[in-house]
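Dear colleagues,

As part of the handover before I leave the project, I'm documenting each prediction I ran so the next person doesn't have to rerun anything. This entry is a single chain, and its sequence is reproduced below.
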Amino acid sequence: MTVRPATPADSAAVWRLLNGFVTSYRPDRAVFEDVTFPQVLKSAAEGGAEFLVAERDSATVGYVLAVRMPTLFAGGTVLELLELTVDAGLRGGGIGSALIRAVQARAEAAGDVEVTVPTRRAGEFYRRLGFDETATYFKWSRS
């Protein structure tokens, strides 16, 4: 298995994985193709995000997206992990962990103060990878 930065050629695979990941939103394919996917690739190329994919046998089987934010409270940038997904049939085989370890390595290289992740469903997974639970996460959504 290989972890590498996402490229435009990953669009179809990331779309497929995204649709197996989302629970609160319904992604729109046209918006994904024309707006959000290119924006995320651009942000990653400029250092504002980490957008990595996992490949196995030449197939994209997982991805992770984290955004880098300057902060005052932490005295530097914080990398917030927003999306992590792996093909359902391959979960539990170390692909998600490899993606997280790659993000952590990139955060360390970039000098990020910390990596955070808002999650309700995957607390045990992140605890096993050395993350500590530190806060309750609130959100306001434009409806």
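The mean pLDDT is 92. The CA atoms of residues 57 and 67 lie 28 Å apart.

All the best with the project,
I.
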